[in-house]
Design a protein that fits this description.
8 helices, alpha+beta, three-stranded antiparallel beta sheet, 2 domains, Arc Repressor Mutant, subunit A, globular, single chain
Length: 183
């Protein structure tokens, strides 16, 4: 398939799908290799970015999606006046941060870090699709292990977990941070 035609087909599929599409599903549907798909996606992404088009290619994990350029969001919102999304509570955000940085983790692992019960926050994050059960820990009771999902990456505009901001470094054990007080 000619490269320009392939890009057009990809654009059409991603536009109609609306939702994130698994890379392997795209390659299978188009009957092309993974490397040919990645090359076509790279070129399509370059096309959108070089001309600062209204659409852009969003990649996260093993998924790809066609979306609008964030810089144009205020104009879109003015026209469509979308209903405000319910934001995550502080407890849910803290729980999500622990899962994101320490995954896979159990509920007890999260509670040890946060110092409070996390049942409701974890269930809320699972329901929203931001985290998912990924297995069981090989220990007494075999507790459920949780990890973030591709929806988490999409929601926060990340391609991989490596794009998470680095957490601040803690002072070494025994090292005390000294505050300066004015005299």
């Amino acid at each position: 398939m000619e490269q320009q035609h392939l890009q057009g087909v990809l654009e059409a599929i991603l536009y109609v799908a609306g939702e994130p599409v698994e890379l392997k599903d795209l390659a299978r549907a188009l009957e092309i290799s993974d490397s040919a798909l990645l090359q076509a996606l790279d070129e399509l992404e370059y096309y959108y970015d070089a001309q600062y088009r209204g659409l852009r290619l969003k990649r996260f994990g093993t998924h790809v999606q066609l979306g609008t350029r964030a810089a144009y969001a205020p104009y879109i919102e003015r026209l469509l006046q979308p209903v405000q999304k319910v934001s995550l509570s502080q407890a849910a955000l803290e729980t999500l941060a622990v899962v994101a940085y320490r995954q896979p983790v159990t509920r007890l692992d999260v509670e040890m870090v946060r110092g409070v019960k996390c049942d409701y926050s974890i269930q809320s994050l699972v329901t929203k699709g931001l985290i998912a059960e990924v297995g069981r820990k090989e220990t007494i009771g075999r507790p459920i292990l949780y990890a973030t999902t591709d929806l988490f990456l999409n929601h926060f505009g990340l391609q991989t977990l490596n794009d998470l901001p680095k957490p601040p470094e803690k002072p070494a054990a025994g090292e005390i941070e000294q505050e300066e007080f004015p005299i």
